[in-house]
Design goal:
Helix content of chain A: over 70%
Radius of gyration of chain B: 18 Å
Largest interface: A-B, 91 and 73 residues
Number of helices of chain A: 8
Structural class of chain B: mainly alpha
Shape of chain A: extended
Radius of gyration of chain A: 22 Å
Helix content of chain B: over 70%
Number of strands of chain A: 0
Oligomer: heterodimer
Shape of chain B: elongated
Strand content of chain A: under 5%
Largest sheet of chain B: none
Order of helices and strands of chain B: HHH
Strand content of chain B: under 5%
Order of helices and strands of chain A: HHHHHHHH
Chain lengths: 181, 106
């Protein structure tokens, strides 16, 4: 649970399961399998947050991400009844090669940076306890003081989203009726 | 498990976050279905969130966790709008394959 020391067995297993499910989001042909694997990835990431001691973020992750967003994905994928698309198609070779190259390049560079850095060797980190930063009260105090304006703007964003999706979802006939045509 | 004994907890989690981000990037470039591209977008955001939470844990600073909440919120809004768009497109065109949707190309 502390930032010093090596990761324990549970964290390692959860981390690898996260990567495996994320890979199967990308590699599975059936979109429903992808969506369910996405749900598993988001759930496991929430478990990783809890393993780090951020219980509130873990709960938010599981409630909002795995519980709402991923379920929305599963719902839409099943609603659209998509046919499984093959990964390799003629004319896609350049894009596949580009994707693999970019991700290998990014992954190697960033992993070397992450693994060779000196995270965890800082003395100042041990001063405050984890409870003083990860508790809901601390985070909500930030939302009400320092991040008050962004919080309000985020509310506006959600409102605009709701309005936009309602307009998008309506058939054209009903929209014409609203406009009086 | 001995392999990871030289790593700190933060290094391990940042590494997992980085790999999640890269899996998302590769999926976004490789797959041709619009819905899968959206899922890969969520994977990328998730990798960034994992990095933010582990750095917040390392520095004992709550701002990383607050930023994660904002990211979750924007991701929810984005997913709702994009899925609504794809449903509308599917109704009109009958496909969400990104290779077939090129009417804006002229």
């Amino acid at each position: 649970m502390e930032s010093v020391g090596s990761p324990n067995v549970v964290q390692i297993v959860l981390g690898f399961l996260t990567l495996v499910t994320a890979l199967s989001v990308v590699l599975s042909k059936n979109p429903v399998v992808s969506a369910v694997n996405l749900m598993a990835t988001l759930f496991l990431t929430g478990a990783l947050y809890i393993g780090l001691g951020h219980f509130f973020m873990g709960a938010i992750q599981i409630l909002i991400y795995a519980g709402a967003i991923a379920v929305l994905f599963v719902f839409i994928v099943m609603l659209l009844d998509l046919k499984p698309l093959s990964l390799t198609l003629p004319g896609r070779a350049v894009s596949i090669a580009g994707g693999v190259f970019v991700s290998l390049f990014l992954g190697l560079g960033l992993s070397v940076a992450a693994f060779r850095s000196s995270f965890g060797n800082q003395g100042a980190a041990e001063v405050e306890s984890l409870a003083s930063i990860a508790s809901p009260s601390v985070i909500s105090l930030q939302f009400l003081s320092k991040y008050h304006l962004p919080f309000q703007v985020a509310g506006l964003l959600i409102f605009a989203t709701v309005m936009g999706v309602v307009v998008l979802g309506k058939p054209k006939k009903q929209l014409d009726q609203v406009e009086g045509k | 498990m001995e392999l990871f004994s030289g790593l700190s907890v933060t290094q391990f989690h940042v590494g997992i976050g980085v790999l999640l981000f890269c899996i998302g990037v590769s999926g976004f470039l490789i797959r041709r279905s619009g819905l899968i591209a959206l899922m890969c977008l969520e994977l990328m955001l998730n990798g960034v969130n994992l990095c933010l939470v582990s750095f917040s844990n390392l520095h004992r600073n709550p701002e990383g966790a607050s930023l994660v909440l904002f990211i979750v919120l924007v991701a929810a809004a984005e997913a709702a709008v994009a899925l609504g768009l794809f449903v509308a497109i599917f109704r009109k065109v009958g496909t969400v394959s990104l290779d077939d949707l090129r009417s804006l190309k002229g």
